[in-house]
Amino acid sequence: MKFQPHSVYHVYNQGNNQQQLFFANEDYLKFLELYELYIHSYVDTIAWCLIPNHFHFMFSVKENCVPVKQGGLVLDSVSNGFRKLLSAYAHYFNTQTNRSGSVFRPKTKAKELEVKGNRNYYINCFYYLHQNAWRHGLVTHASLWKYSSYHFYAGNRIKSLCNKKLAEEFCEYDIQTFATLVEKRLPDDLIDGLL
Question: What are phi and psi of 189, to 5 degrees?
Fold first, then answer.
């Protein structure tokens, strides 16, 4: 992964061999706490979703994303933050489950969302993330999943990692239409460009 300031990305990874990553409420909260600790200061988070075996984030990279020397490697601040996040969560997870070994797939995927004259990539990614638990059959309605930024954008949660102004600017977010638009399932061919 290589992140550039002022670019918008969809970042995701899953448990190694599709193993479950989150078993209890505390697991989801720990992952978000680590995200805030290691990544949040370098990005403006637009949307996020955690489901039992994977995670998604959509964010714009801030100006302070700079090269960081880590041993013999030179990484940007966001890549290094994800390295630290996944390592710290793997340590937490292995301790909690009394196991050892890798927890995540080796490579976290990062897709730069290019605008190319319109904002459809941004808008589609924004709604896809909020539909994720519903698309995977974990809930019958997107509003029933509590581990995403859905409730912040629906007006049910005050505190969030998300930057609402960027969601308005990039994703045409409007609180009046948000819940209705999340419930309109995106065609699968629109999602292919996001992954």
Answer: -70, -25
| 175 domain residue, yes or no | yes
Radius of gyration of the chain (CA): 16
Rounded to a whole number of angstroms, the distance between the first and last alpha carbons of the chain is: 14
pLDDT digits (tens, 9 = 90+) for 142-195: 999 999 999 999 998 888 899 999 999 999 999 999 999 898 866 665 665 555
Sole residue written with tokens 């680590």: 34
Q: Within 13 A of 56's CA, how many CA atoms are on the CB side?
A: 23
Amino acid (one-letter) located at 106: P
Provide the domain count of the chain.
1
Angle between helices 120-135 and 164-171 (to 10 degrees): 110
Q: Quote the tokens at residue 20.
A: 């479950």
| Domain with 172 in it | 8-194
DSSP helix/strand/coil, 131: helix
CB of 168 within 8 A of CB of 191? Answer: no
Q: Helix, strand, or coil here: 46?
A: strand
Q: How far is CA 66 from CA 23, 42, 91, 166, 170, in A?
A: 35, 9, 26, 22, 24
